[in-house]
């Protein structure tokens, strides 16, 4: 491997003593909220896990969340930045009965690790302060190590199938005008389209199982109804994406609904569950945007845009309830100069 040639730059603009930028505040705040929630969820999972490999995996994930939260608190304290309330003991009942089978925990960790990698990946080119940049590089590195363990366990225990295998190209070819056709004279799916269908199905079968479990245990009727709506919306998307792969005689990830126990006793507060699904459905919006960007067939792009609009509607409905309940913390925001009044 050819090493990078060193560049010697002297500046105080990236010093840990410089003020946090809006990008650094926003990303640190979001990372804190997500990992304080993860601490509650992973601590509950650890109360019931029986498989020793999966237990170690959960412990590793919990250790990372605890460390990330602690390091962000240290940065915030140096800046006199108000520590977010986030989530804590009041949002989890560690004595609640088991709600998931052990296998679900591994799928869940892959689902949330993907979300973490997406946040950290976007943060790295945006942050400039050296200590914050080093923190996100560390988050990325450690989460990638966790993902390696997750995938190893999923494969070793036969919990997932590999993404579909397609022929290896033996020559360079160029597309014709019909490449983007989606209704008549459709071409086969190309590798990136297949990859994103597989990824979206994998995400959605985990998301459906999770929101189905949340709908069983939610105490508030309005929140329960929203979870049921989200479950049904996710089911529609799964069927559409599976159909696209099946049309090409390609396999798709399996449902995980059977990994949810019939318990109706909630281990989590309605606040935590609503925040979690609002946050993860918002992540789907980004995933669908990425999928549209690599899809050449116009029928596929239309399908993702349709899904995106419906998912955005769910996020808006969830946010309205979250605000009505007085649960939504205010992220760092710019000065509202229109409201400034002179003395």
TrEMBL record:
What InterPro entries has UniProt attached to this entry? DUF3231 (IPR021617), Ferritin-like (IPR012347)
**Gene3D superfamilies recorded for this chain?**
1.20.1260.10
Q: Mind telling me what this protein is named?
A: DUF3231 family protein
Species, as recorded: Bacillus carboniphilus
């Amino acid at each position: 491997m050819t090493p990078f040639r060193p560049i010697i730059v002297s500046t105080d603009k990236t010093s840990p003593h410089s003020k946090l930028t809006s990008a650094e505040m926003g990303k640190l705040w979001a990372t804190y909220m997500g990992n304080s929630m993860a601490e509650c969820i992973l601590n509950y999972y650890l109360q019931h896990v029986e498989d020793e490999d999966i237990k170690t995996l959960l412990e590793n994930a919990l250790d990372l969340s605890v460390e990330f939260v602690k390091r962000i608190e240290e940065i915030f304290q140096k800046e006199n930045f108000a520590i977010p309330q986030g989530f804590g003991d009041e949002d989890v009942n560690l004595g609640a009965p088991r709600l998931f089978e052990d296998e679900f925990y591994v799928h869940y960790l892959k689902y949330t690790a993907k979300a973490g990698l997406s946040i950290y990946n976007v943060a790295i080119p945006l942050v400039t302060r050296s200590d914050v940049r080093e923190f996100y590089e560390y988050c990325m590195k450690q989460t990638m190590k966790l993902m390696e363990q997750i995938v190893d366990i999923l494969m070793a225990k036969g919990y997932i199938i590999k993404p579909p295998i397609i022929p290896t190209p033996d020559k360079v070819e160029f597309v014709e005008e019909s490449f983007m056709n989606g209704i008549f004279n459709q071409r086969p799916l190309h590798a990136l389209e297949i990859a994103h269908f597989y990824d979206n199905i994998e995400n959605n079968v985990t998301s459906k199982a999770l929101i189905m479990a949340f709908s069983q245990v939610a105490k508030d009727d309005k929140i329960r109804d929203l979870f049921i709506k989200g479950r049904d919306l996710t089911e529609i998307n799964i069927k559409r994406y599976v159909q696209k792969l099946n049309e090409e005689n390609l396999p798709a990830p399996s449902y995980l609904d059977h990994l949810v126990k019939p318990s109706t006793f909630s281990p989590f507060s309605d606040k935590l569950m609503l925040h979690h699904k609002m946050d993860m459905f918002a992540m789907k919006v980004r995933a669908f945007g990425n999928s549209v960007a690599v899809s050449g067939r116009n029928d596929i792009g239309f399908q993702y845009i349709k899904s995106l609009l419906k998912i955005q509607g769910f996020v808006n409905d969830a946010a309205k309830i979250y605000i009505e309940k007085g649960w939504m913390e205010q992220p760092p925001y710019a000065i509202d100069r229109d409201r400034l009044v002179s003395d």
